[in-house]
Amino acid sequence: MPGFPALVGRSIFRSSSHALRSTHLTTGVAAAPPLLHRFGSRRALIIQTLSGPVRIERLSDSDSGIIELKLDRPEAKNAIGKEMLRGLQNAIETIGNDSSANVVVVSSSVPKVFCAGADLKERKLMSASEVQQFVNSLRSTFSSLEELSVPTVAVIEGAALGGGLEMALSCDLRVCGEQSTFSLPETGLAIIPGAGGTQRLPRIVGRSAAKELIFTGRRISGKEAVSMGLVNYCVPAGEAHHKALEIARDINQKGPLAIRMAKQAINKGLEVDMPSALDAEEECYEQLLDTQDRLEGLAAFAEKRKPSCAALRCAAPRSCCC
């Protein structure tokens, strides 16, 4: 059983006074001015980094710790080409290195589409070896998204096709609008889903349902997707982002180390037999025993108040956040 990274230090529940930070991706594009948005009944300051077809937005104040990864290639319905793939890789690496991140919301800025899959116009110009290299890189990128230590929530409004659905499958949770559609149409192009779809889909919806969807390439609706467990929630059209933020805020209020260890225990445990899975759970639990998070959580419960991390500083590299 591979070892788990040690949680050093006392990191703890997020603080409402958490400092805002903007990030510059490797493209070197300067951050845009802060934006003030209303989410439901809340107003949140956003520090925004523009980077071509992929951008990162950090929410602030009571939503500090929530990061939005947004797809923004309207001219191609967010189809994934080389530039967008580089943007995804940079964004995922940036989030992975950000100790202030507690939860990531993956969404589209383009109306009526999450992601249309691979950019087939660009694909036609590639040689067979270039296609193989691109698909391998896309598969690795989605694995990196899946392996982020913090929870990820995909917001689907509209079409999630091919590689777009594979991206959503790489997230921990999925929320869609009723008018959304889902499909893995690759067999109609005489290929198969190559960025994780043949492996993640059966793990989420079961072997038989996954085979039917992949063999036929059939499109399903948001309501059918929730009925088979492909998405966690299907809400009225236009409300998926609001629901995802509601979930993200709920996660954001929990102990960040506990959330990371819960994700790690579940993911590791699903890949091994039950005795080894229980060992993984034990090891993850043990890493929380000496943290300030646990002590603060117990104190807050006893005193009937919300946990706080005022005046506490995070000392654990990349494994925690305060």
UniProtKB/TrEMBL annotation:
<protein>
    <submittedName>
        <fullName>Uncharacterized protein</fullName>
    </submittedName>
</protein>
<dbReference type="Pfam" id="PF00378">
    <property type="entry name" value="ECH_1"/>
</dbReference>
<keyword id="KW-0456">Lyase</keyword>
<dbReference type="InterPro" id="IPR014748">
    <property type="entry name" value="Enoyl-CoA_hydra_C"/>
</dbReference>
<comment type="similarity">
    <text>Belongs to the enoyl-CoA hydratase/isomerase family.</text>
</comment>
<dbReference type="InterPro" id="IPR001753">
    <property type="entry name" value="Enoyl-CoA_hydra/iso"/>
</dbReference>
<dbReference type="GO" id="GO:0016836">
    <property type="term" value="F:hydro-lyase activity"/>
</dbReference>
<dbReference type="InterPro" id="IPR018376">
    <property type="entry name" value="Enoyl-CoA_hyd/isom_CS"/>
</dbReference>
<dbReference type="InterPro" id="IPR029045">
    <property type="entry name" value="ClpP/crotonase-like_dom_sf"/>
</dbReference>
